[in-house]
């Protein structure tokens, strides 16, 4: 099984550059795995398909406005850092260019009293220490940019106009636990009103997966099984764990909202109830041929060709059905990727 088997052509104009005017204005392609039937609906109709009171599991991670621009203290050369993970107060792992050229102690300035020094290389990231955690937080809140994916390309007035909107719309309405560098995008379609309406149609639980580089790391090997995902932190509250355990015992379906929730749910087994929250790190990579033990249904956006996310949906629904669904979505001009439309796989 080669990664080239999961390639497809996507017209560039179908890559959503901005969110829909309202969150639930997006479209919804409903795919029934038993019948292979496909139905085109609006996302506001999502609750129509919750006829047997499933358990919905959401990822409540919160995206940090983690793109920070500054300059080298010695040369004034501009730099852009993407803050990925806090090691301890004021000490962070960041993605930056020119990693191999950095020297311990090298200083950087970010304005308004915030400075930082490079400490060491940590894998493919730089470990840096800021002048203070408080100054860093103030800088991120004031001028940090949301870490939008590389395929969202804006210029000029549109880029400036969208910055404030991205802080709201590249964040789910139920985001609580700060630590992600990307949004769990299947959750972006939900409004506060829809979350309230869900209470009469389904049970709801929340877990946390802090989306990091691992989720979007390109597959750079030919053989799918040779790819290794980077670990990402997760936490499953005891209440959510026990809801899942009870649903599986009772035979009620578990509907994962998004691929990140899916990866957590398929990283552990919910055979017994627990008294405490469960947390850890997962590098779970789901590709065709692997069984799903917990997730019965999946709500997801449309993903990049040759990506681990497209491999996951092919593993869940079967590659032939997903190829047909994607082909149909392209023909119907669905919007793709983070700010795009959604697909419900039953």
Notes on the protein architecture:
The protein has helices at 133-143, 156-169, 192-198, 213-216, 238-250, 259-265, 308-317, 319-331; strands at residues 27-31, 38-42, 55-59, 61-63, 67-72, 78-88, 91-95, 107-111, 114-122, 125-130, 177-180, 203-209, 232-236, 254-257, 278-282, 297-301, 342-345. The protein is α/β, with parallel strands linked by helices and 346 residues long. The chain folds into 2 domains: 3-63 and 169-345, QueA-like (3-Layer(aba) Sandwich); 67-143, Thrombin, subunit H, CATH 2.40.10. The strands form 3 sheets. The chain has a 9-stranded mixed β-sheet. The protein has a 6-stranded antiparallel barrel with strand order 5-6-7-10-9-8. The two termini are 25 Å apart.
Summarize the biggest pleated sheet: 9 strands, mixed
Low-pLDDT runs of 5+ residues are none
Structural class: alpha/beta
| Residue-averaged pLDDT | 95
Globular, elongated, flat, extended or rod-shaped: what is the shape? globular
Number of helices: 8
Counted up, domains total 2
Q: Strand-residue fraction? A: 25-35%
Distance between the termini: 25 Å
Q: Which oligomeric state applies?
A: single chain
The CATH homologous superfamily of the largest domain:
QueA-like
Number of extended strands:
17
H/E element order? EEEEEEEEEEHHEHEHEHEHEEHHE
Radius of gyration equals 21 Å
Q: What share of the residues lie within helices?
A: 10-25%
Which architecture of the largest domain does the CATH hierarchy give at level 2? 3-Layer(aba) Sandwich
CATH class category of the largest domain: Alpha Beta
Q: What is the CATH topology of the largest domain? A: QueA-like
**Strand order, largest beta sheet:** 2-1-17-16-14-3-12-13-15
């Amino acid at each position: 099984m080669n990664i080239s088997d999961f390639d497809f052509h996507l017209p560039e104009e179908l890559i959503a550059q901005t969110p829909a005017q309202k969150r639930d204005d997006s479209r919804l392609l409903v795919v029934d795995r038993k019948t292979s039937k496909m139905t085109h609906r609006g996302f506001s109709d999502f609750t129509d398909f919750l006829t047997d009171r499933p358990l919905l599991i959401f990822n409540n991670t919160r995206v940090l406005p983690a793109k920070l621009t500054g300059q080298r203290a010695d040369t004034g050369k501009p730099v852009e850092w993407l803050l990925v993970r806090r090691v301890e107060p004021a000490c962070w792992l960041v993605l930056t260019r020119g990693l191999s050229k950095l020297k311990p102690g090298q200083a950087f300035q970010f304005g308004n009293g915030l400075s930082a020094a490079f400490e060491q290389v940590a894998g493919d990231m730089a470990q840096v220490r800021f002048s203070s955690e408080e100054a860093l937080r103030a800088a991120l809140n004031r001028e940090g940019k949301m870490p939008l994916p590389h395929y969202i390309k804006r210029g000029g007035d549109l880029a400036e106009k969208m910055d404030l909107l991205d802080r709201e719309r590249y964040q789910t309405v139920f985001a609580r636990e700060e630590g992600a560098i990307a949004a769990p995008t299947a959750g972006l379609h939900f409004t506060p009103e829809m979350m309230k309406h869900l209470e009469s149609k389904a049970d709801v639980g929340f877990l946390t997966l802090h989306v990091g580089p691992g989720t979007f790391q390109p597959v750079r090997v030919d053989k799918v099984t040779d790819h290794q995902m980077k670990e990402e932190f997760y936490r499953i509250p005891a209440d959510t764990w026990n809801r899942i355990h009870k649903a599986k015992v009772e035979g009620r379906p578990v509907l994962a909202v998004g691929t990140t929730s899916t990866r957590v749910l398929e990283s552990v087994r919910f055979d017994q109830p627990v008294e405490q929250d469960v947390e850890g790190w997962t590098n779970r990579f789901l590709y065709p041929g692997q069984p799903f033990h917990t997730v019965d249904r999946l709500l997801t956006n449309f993903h990049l060709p040759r990506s681990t996310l497209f491999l996951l949906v092919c593993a869940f629904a079967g590659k032939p059905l997903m190829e047909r669904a994607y082909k149909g979505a392209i023909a119907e001009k669905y919007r793709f990727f983070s700010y795009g439309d959604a697909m419900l796989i039953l």
